[in-house]
Amino acid sequence: MSVPATVSRYQIKQELGQGAMGTLYLALDPLIDRLVAVKLLRVDTEELRSRFLREARAGGRLQHKNIVTFYDVGVHDDQPFIAMEYIKGETLAEIISRKATLSLDRKLKLIEELCDGLGYAHDAGLIHRDIKPANLMVTEGAGELKILDFGIARVTDLTGLTQAGGILGTMHYMSPEQAQGRPLDHRSDIFAVGAVLYEILTYRRAFAGRDLRDVLQFTPVPIAQLAPSLDPVVDDVIERALLPEPENRYQHLRELAKRLTDVRTGASARPSDDQRRSDMVAGQRRASADATQVESYLSSAQTQLGQRNLAKALTLVNRALDVERTQAGVELQQRVLLAIENSEKGHERAASV
Q: What is the pLDDT of the chain when averaged over all its residues?
């Protein structure tokens, strides 16, 4: 396919790359004389275009130094696009591929930045679904980590491109629940962070295999065998992040990042086996109590939504998400926000008559 001269108002300078979902271009925004990255998506139906625009707008609300900023979304020749911050640098996949010489402190700091940005998104009710080294940029100069492609993985799932070839680059970082098509929440991203941490420390994938079955049945080589001098706390962090059941993993990335910070600053102390078991049991009890509270909030929010009490519905669903970021809660929040948006549009139309 030839390179377009423009996408919307953006003047295309060159192609930067192609993926399963579309093509990325370097472009100039002539209104403010700024270079941007423009991703032009290949989607076939109006439903998918609408879904993409909703997801992109949700990603555009994220403002964090470790997340690539969206400037604009729209449609060009029936194809949706995102104009976003242009990052000079290289992906974590490229750094791993060339086995760059990085200190342990530097590697852990990059993962802490990943946790900071991704945790912020989780707090906003969004999950990424496709955390992998190729979706993580390290900026030229400052060396700051930036998360790419928020909102796009959700649309990829709906197009079926994950089965058509897109999954081949991501299956090694998929949580078991994602690989099996089960409901997802933010803890699926936490699993992926564990896989990325393993890989940046060893320069080999935690989960090898040619297909999803191989990946699901594969047990990572203990990192202590690959890096015997590594602080055992890091081994514990990876082991917990990669546990098969979400309720047994870290429940928020703040916990994971704190452990890595402790290792970097020399404040780490490996818990005893008894303490680890006690922490896990306590975590399971908290998860059970949280699930009950979340169910109550979401049920009440659903009732209020049905009665068109939209403000009350939003308050209740936000309370549920404050307790735990579940997929059901995020989807209900999106429904409530869409209802509010439609209600506001209705009022605007009425006022203009």
A: 85
